[in-house]
Amino acid sequence: MGSGPCAGSASAAPGSGECPIVIDPLVGGLAEETEALRTAGPLARIDLMGAPAWTVTTHAEARKLLTDTRLVKDISRWNLWRSGEIDESWPLIGMVDAGRSMFTVDGVEHRRLRVKTAQALTPRRLAGIRPDIERITGRLLDAIEARAAEAPEEPVDLKSAFAQPLPMSVVCSLMGVDPALEPRLHRLYEAFFSMLTPQDERLAVIQELDELYAEMVREKSLSPGDDLTSALILADEGGEPLTAEEVRGNLEAMVAAGHETTVTLILCAVRALLTHPEQLRLVLDGEVGWEAVIEETLRWESPSTHLLMRFATSDIEVAGAVVREGEGVVMSYRAIGRDRAQHGQDADRFDVRRPVPVRHLAFGHGPHICPGAGLSRLEASVALPALFERFPGLSLAVPVTEIRNRPVLTQNELESLPVRVR
């Protein structure tokens, strides 16, 4: 990561128009990148794999802009898209031009699509899925325990053995997806998010996902059940029902965002606790609750690093700078979560003893706040205590400096988390 070669003036400040901060798609130095963005100020100029954009780095400005109706999700408002400078060959296009869903429209249409999801993803449905979360958690922990008994010297990758399959199994159960599809979905999303995937392969993955979900919607339309897919299809209260394309778009985006968020939340919480043993002891002794662990982890290591993208429909003044009509705006949630003006001068420190609630923006804010936030928190609140109760001697199997991020520009995703369970 770095500011990259700066045009114009050698003395130009990183994050200015003359010297944009180059966001590293391989995520080689996340801490350094976060610090560079914070130093650049509330609004920084960035280079996003060849596309110039603005990014927001502070809590206060993010809260304002996330409710500003002059920023929209409609890619047709992006000047680089209209001019043809950005097209389907851009590696991040799947994050920006993601089909029709509540994640990609605004205003009245967004409310129409979102209310249907709210009707389907009710507190009752969340409460009803908790036993499934507990069952899946127990099954995965049983498998880890059996493997550890057979090969006690071998470390366990907590990502592939626990943190990754848990939310995928949960969301498939919620959606009524055949569990046999889970390995295929893992493979497709791994390829979709990785910046190492060639763009032609990524476009093929997007097509395969579209077809998979379209077929699922067709099957559920013919034979609905007690699942989220069927509920979205049947949710017709308060206006016209969702089209098949809209149901598919909502489901596809919810699965992508939902399982990725929870994987990161679980892994980053475990890594943080194992590298802060005094805080882990407070939690295990009951002096600090798991809710505090979850909220502090979301603040400190936001599951989304850079959330793409909104477009200005008119000029917008932000902290002394101006976002011009047609320009793209990114939310850099990792920098926002470590905003010293919001969280104090020790914002870079993981501390479960911070006053609760920790007012972070890890799940967004305003009309587009993540609809799966409750599910992600629920999964973590089941998984984390169960993990540490089953394996009280849990420890990292490698130095923390050897734990790397995957080359995923938008997600704070670890490659793996090797641990010893005994």
From TrEMBL:
Q: Which PROSITE patterns match?
A: CYTOCHROME_P450
Q: Which UniProt keywords apply?
A: Heme, Iron, Metal-binding, Monooxygenase, Oxidoreductase
Transmembrane residue ranges: none
Q: Matching InterPro entries, A to Z?
A: Cyt_P450 (IPR001128), Cyt_P450_B (IPR002397), Cyt_P450_CS (IPR017972), Cyt_P450_sf (IPR036396)
Family, similarity comment:
Belongs to the cytochrome P450 family.
Q: What is the official name of this protein in its record?
A: Cytochrome P450
